[in-house]
């Protein structure tokens, strides 16, 4: 049911923890399953994500998704992180079962929520962020229509 990569990132998640005095922190949750994901970003003056950590209180797919998502945005620009989709996270994990796709949505939203926090605190504009609604439930995501 789960790919080797999902199992590997679930068993050995990368970048677990928190960053003190993070540039941006985002927390999102899924009302249906009750899972919560918190993402911390350390962003330098050039807009590069120098460090990223996460804490996920949730299912194995959510942990694997957050682990993979942190790997995908570490060292990238905020604009590149903004473009990371849940589908890209799931693809990097060699796929997730359809009923678990919302777990990867949580990872995408947690990053965007942290970017939003960063942009508001530092008065920085990030293209596309204006369309992000931090209160949107992951199950309401268009790709999660049942
Ligand atoms: Fe909800 Fe995985 S079951 S995040």
Short description:
The chain has 146 residues and is α+β, with helices and mostly antiparallel strands.
Question: What does this molecule look like?
Answer:
- This protein has a three-stranded antiparallel sheet.
- The protein is α+β, with helices and mostly antiparallel strands.
- It has helices at residues 4-11, 60-73, 78-82, 86-92, 101-122; strands at 24-29, 36-43, 49-57.
- The chain is globular and about 45 Å long.
- Helix 2 packs across helix 4 (86-92), helix 2 (60-73) crosses helix 5 (101-122) and helix 4 crosses helix 5 (101-122).
- The protein is 38% helix and 16% strand.
- The structure holds FE2/S2 (inorganic) cluster (FES).
Q: Give the overall shape, derived from the CA principal axes.
A: globular
Uncertain segments are: 140-146
Approximate strand percentage: 15-25%
Name the strands of the widest sheet in spatial order. Answer: 1-2-3
